[in-house]
């Protein structure tokens, strides 16, 4: 069996990063293939993308689309998907929330419109982006952080979201924590798609996380994992 190949935009983390973290944590070999926008359009127009979206994962000639499906496949390979059906459903619930949060976040930057029967992204005006980002951090993200804290506190004296060992759901939360950290590179580099001088308004994610000791502790546990630590050093957010 050949190594699975994960396709995403060059230097992009986004919806592909959860699958990367799972593969890396589980010591599963994979090929991380970044493509240009021109290559993306070529793949889309030639019918290689089942839903005309990235990421995709190719496994021995079979193409898997949709970020949650790819991450779930990776989690099962890595032993990070629970065998218990109820716990499995709980992790699905959390990863679905991960996707919902990212959908709202990306919606701060772009408006999805249909053009000639194809879904396209239209960039929002800078003022609108900033207003929507301020609202996102002050409401959606803050609210979900408190929900995640409550889930950990209900998890049988465990530092994890579901059960007594780390699952793909914990890595989904970790991905969000890293993405929305105010020190992440995507906020500071003017050439990036996500650059905004101050996307938070009066809200500061690090200050909020310090108020949530269980979320903070989970993040520390994952960061201290040697394989994750090495990955973050060479591929910072």
From TrEMBL:
SUPFAM superfamilies linked? GST C-terminal domain-like, Thioredoxin-like
Q: What is this protein called?
A: Glutathione S-transferase
A molecular function (GO) held by this record is:
glutathione transferase activity
Q: What is the lineage of its organism?
A: Bacteria, Bacillati, Cyanobacteriota, Cyanophyceae, Nostocales
| UniProt keyword Transport present | no
Q: What are the residue boundaries of the GST N-terminal domain, all occurrences included?
A: 3-82
> Which terms are listed as keywords in the entry?
Transferase
Q: Which residue spans traverse the membrane? A: none
Q: Which residues form the GST C-terminal domain?
A: 84-237
